[in-house]
UniProtKB/TrEMBL annotation:
The lineage of its organism: Bacteria, Pseudomonadati, Bacteroidota, Bacteroidia, Bacteroidales. It comes from Segatella bryantii (Prevotella bryantii). Its main location: membrane. The chain crosses the membrane at residues 12-30, 42-60, 72-94, 100-120, 127-149, 161-186, 198-215, 227-252, 264-285, 291-314. It is a multi-pass membrane protein. This is Sodium transporter. Gene3D superfamilies: 1.20.1530.20.
């Protein structure tokens, strides 16, 4: 039983993108499947994702923040300047309607995604730096995300920055702190590594639930507006994500980082915590239901593109190793 669960968790980790896309497609044809993933339920599910992250973090991961302050500072600046900036430019250039604009701006203002650490490992990046960047951006998120949303989206809708701060703190910092404490006190027990081995699979399933809930919410709007709305939104998400990777890499180059660090910062900047953006969009922009669409597409696409980018980095290594 235990080995079967571990195998399922590994499979879900390896095929995250395919699983999430599969759930999205199934939900589109059976739109009431995830009607239950709304409001507080959605928030709890994201809290579980963040708890799984906390369970895999040790005190050594946080020591990176103190040992490499310059690296983390450059990474944090890149994270909270590049992605919100690109999102704001895209909203202006593409002249997005208010709901879609809110969604893409929210994705841009959120911290780095949890799965970025896995992508950094796959492409021979600096994993310690990746974990440090994710920790730093997540810790800063309760302050930076409301501030940046007020700055970039304040003219579209009134942003309740204080309430957003509280929501982000409860749904990110609190569960991560609980996970870290459990890791600290119980990591030496034999059963704990087995529990940790299930966490990637749990995280993927929870993310799929969130995406399914979003598809259920926007299904009628998607059907009414046709395939054009999806393609238009996907194009914006694609540009936002791709430019994030490119600008992240260039910021690492400008800072004089090694190849491993440049790869890491490109992935960390480009991959956002779209699950958090999805929950925030549902909680704060209920009057604009389409705001969750760019967040849901980002949930799936960032996993796919991160895998592709990691593969391209490895292909580059193989090509140049043979020369």
């Amino acid at each position: 039983m235990l080995k079967s669960l571990q195998s399922i968790s590994r499979w879900l980790s390896n095929y995250t993108s395919a699983f999430i896309i599969g759930i999205a497609v199934v939900t589109f044809f059976f739109p009431h499947l995830f009607d239950w993933v709304r409001g507080k339920t959605q928030t709890v599910i994201l809290g579980i994702i963040m708890l799984t992250m906390g369970l895999t973090l040790s005190t050594n991961d946080f020591k990176v923040l103190a040992k490499r302050p310059l690296d983390i500072f450059v990474g944090a600046c890149a994270q909270f300047i590049i992605m919100p900036g690109i999102a704001y430019l895209l909203v202006r250039v593409w002249r997005l309607e208010p709901a879609l604009a809110l969604g893409i701006l929210l994705v841009g203002c959120c911290p780095g995604g949890v799965s970025s650490n896995v992508m950094s490992f796959l492409c021979r990046g600096d994993v310690a730096f990746s974990v440090g960047m994710t920790c730093a951006s997540t810790i800063l998120a309760p302050f930076m995300t409301p501030f940046l949303m007020k700055l970039t989206a304040g003219e579209i809708i009134i942003i309740d920055a204080v309430r957003m701060f509280i929501d982000i703190f409860i749904v990110t910092i609190f569960p991560i702190a609980i996970g870290c404490m459990l890791n600290y006190f119980y990591s030496k027990r034999d059963v704990f590594p087995k529990i940790q081995s299930f966490m990637p699979g749990v995280s993927v399933i929870c993310l799929a639930f969130i995406v399914g809930g979003v598809i259920s919410t926007v299904h009628d709007k998607l059907v009414a507006r046709g395939f054009y709305l999806f393609i238009w939104t996907f194009a914006v998400v694609f540009c936002h994500n791709t430019l994030g990777y490119i600008m992240g890499y260039l910021s690492g180059k400008f800072a004089g980082f090694s190849i491993a660090k440049k790869r890491t910062i490109s992935i960390e900047v480009g991959m956002q915590n779209a699950g958090l953006a999805t929950v925030l969009a549902g909680n704060f922009f209920a009057a604009q239901p389409l705001a969750v669409l760019p967040c849901a597409i980002s949930c799936a696409w960032h996993s796919i593109s991160g895998t592709i980018l990691a593969g391209l980095y490895l292909k580059w290594d193989q090509t140049h190793d043979h020369q």
